[in-house]
Amino acid sequence: MKLKKFTAWGALFYFLAITFAHADDRSSTSLTDWQVELQKNSLNWMLSNISAFGTIPGSVMASDSTQNPDYRFHWKRDAALTMDVVVSLYENEKDPAKKEFYYNKIWDYARLSRKLQLTHARGGLGEPKFNSDGTSFDADWGRPQNDGPALEATVLIRFAKILMRERKSPVLIQELYDSKLPTNSVIKENLEYIGREWSADSFDLWEEVMASRHFYTQMAMRRALADGADLASIMGDRAASQWYKIKVAHLDEEINRHWDQTRKIILPTMEARSVKRASGIDIAIILGVLHSYRGDKFFAASDDRVLSTAYETEKAFKDLYPLNKGRENGIGIGRYPEDIYFGGHPWILASNAFSELYYLVIQDWKRKSKIDCTENNLNFLKSLLSVADAQNLKAGMVISSSDVLFTQIISALLKKADGYLKIAYEFQNPDKSLPEQIDKVSGQPVWKGNLTWSCASVLTALSARKI
Known about the structure:
By secondary structure, this protein is mainly alpha-helical. It folds into two domains: about 220 residues, Glycosyltransferase (Alpha/alpha barrel), CATH 1.50.10; about 190 residues, Glycosyltransferase. It is about 55% helix and about 5% strand. It is built from 17 helices and ten strands. Strands 1-2 form a two-stranded antiparallel sheet. The protein has a two-stranded antiparallel sheet with strand order 3-4. Strands 5-8 form a two-stranded antiparallel ribbon. The chain is globular, with a radius of gyration of 22 Å. The N and C termini lie far apart (about 50 Å).
């Protein structure tokens, strides 16, 4: 009976996924066939892991894999990044039935998030993951992880602001943010927590290094508190708004300290309590920019420090994996060069991150109609040009949109961005889902599980491809 029930439910959900998976006509006109196919498959497989059969409504399984490794957990980080995509789908959807579908998924997630806050887990609000039935994961783990509450707050703040624009009931908004202390709302609970804990020790997003200063975590907390200050002000919670802004100012100062002018990279972690990684290279920097930039020019995609870090990251991985030999546009990127997890391989979400970053850089440069060449981004820009053209590039130059070099750089960067994204298409699982890692020699999936974050990263990358 259980097998029949699962099969029937799986068929129903697959039908729903196919029904609701679609490429937005306006954003897909410039996409190639393989990109449209990748977009559709990624959406289908991402949806299949949200409120999946046998899990509590609102949960987001990191993967459907149950062994080697078992990923059927609700990681707060992965869940927030996934539901941020769903919020975008809801915001942009025109069809009422599809819009309601996404709306219900988001509310299930919001209410589960509040339930999990009240479970008294070992890590408190910094607990990184829960069993997919909504119960606490009580085994030993790297806790706390303070990016989770921040990312969760950010996505639900986005949702709350959308509901306000749609003139939804104030009672619904107050369920998300109630302006009370002690609070009964999911957003304010998270904001109050990170406002208190912003400088406390926590594990990094890879769950390995304990420190008080992780670039990714601090960027996530900054975004949440800054967005939260705006929401609190709208809700009349002015004292909280001012308090959140004070914390943002502290974080601005601390995050800027991650820039290493000598090595020309943004360091992922400062003052680590445990593992040290000599290279200082970590895809967490790119992910921190992608997940937590809020349009205020603070570590934007085109920031010369970000581009310098991207250049050094590519250089570090280019010769590290045999898979990358001969690849000109888009290479396999891992988490960090010293990684030994499952043998240390490229991650699909890492190559997708480079794709998304470069699409956003192109957007920024086109919007400004110029490219400022600096000491920090000089090597990055030279890497996009022929040897002859690169020799003429100097720090201090401004390349205007009417300059042939501008067109050459944009064209080269677009090819690179598409090349990075094509890795996900080229090395997907046989069932068209996306793995976590691919083999550093052959490119074959290291394990066949469907990683939700990999799928979500495809969708955010393609959303950024507004060229």
